[in-house]
């Protein structure tokens, strides 16, 4: 990996390469021999990938972002870390990208993003999408469902998967499937201008079914406890998190209860040619790797 001050910098830029999803995208592109610019907070932490250059910037620092994006044609944009000012950070970064002359932004949004979505952070994604539409740049939105890798991590020490989700369903999706879809778009952005893709797993499950699957695969005694909304806020109060974050945690489940994360999409398979990973397949692969 060379420094981003090199004169001949790649025209594909990837954010989030030090994280899970962005890291998968960056490694896939590198494996295909695609040169890329990795936009990171700390260049010393950028993955060492063939054909990559690192550029330092943050979403909120418009000047640094604009400099890092000069000459970029296609930008892969993951959402910023969850914080109270995330939408403002997104808008500043989109503005910097437009000012730098970026042609096309591939943005990782959220399933059912809408101004009135039950899940509070899905409203921020909807506002980011709207800002991108008005930016003058071309765009593609990848709206992913809940990450299936987090399901077994949500189980408490008491074996309970708890939340006010009722009998609602979520079509949980693997990071690897989202990353493959993103790479397909990044390799041919002109074919996906103005497209919105719903990225889901192969089935929509209730939390009771998810708990049962975790039990069957791992051997743990895992059950779903359908909390009331009041119980959900009370059980999360011990973490001392700010109100906006607790609202986000609880509304993840109430959005499921409202049916807003239900529905299996074939978009991912159409983009990649691969059937997406199921929760059971993922858990079994994890068990086999231990």
- Name the poorly predicted regions: 1-7
Structure classification: alpha/beta
Number of helices: 10
Percent of residues in beta strands? 15-25%
Silhouette: globular
Count of beta strands = 12
Distance between the termini: 31 Å
Strand order in the largest sheet: 1-4-3-2-5-6-7-10
Radius of gyration: 19 Å
Largest sheet: 8 strands, parallel
Q: Helical residue percent?
A: 25-40%
Q: What is the H/E string?
A: EEHEEHEHEHEEEHEEHEHHHH
Average pLDDT works out at 95
Describe, in plain words, how this protein is organized in 3D:
By secondary structure, the chain is an alpha/beta fold. The protein is built from ten helices and twelve strands. Helix 1 (20-31) packs across helix 5, helix 3 runs parallel beside helix 4 (120-133) and helix 7 (229-236) packs antiparallel against helix 8. The longest helix is centred in the N-terminal third of the chain and has 15 residues, at 86-100. It is globular.
Task: Give a brief description.
This protein has 290 residues and is α/β, with parallel strands linked by helices. The chain has ten helices and twelve strands.
Chart the SSEs and their pairings.
Blueprint: E1 2-3, E2 12-15, H1 20-31, E3 36-40, E4 52-56, H2 62-69, E5 74-77, H3 86-100, E6 104-110, H4 120-133, E7 138-144, E8 160-163, E9 169-170, H5 175-187, E10 195-199, E11 205-206, H6 207-218, E12 223-226, H7 229-236, H8 243-257, H9 267-272, H10 279-289
Parallel strand pairs: 1-4, 2-3, 2-5, 3-4, 5-6, 6-7, 7-10, 8-12
Antiparallel strand pairs: 9-11
Helix pairs in contact: 1-5, 2-3, 3-4, 6-10, 7-8
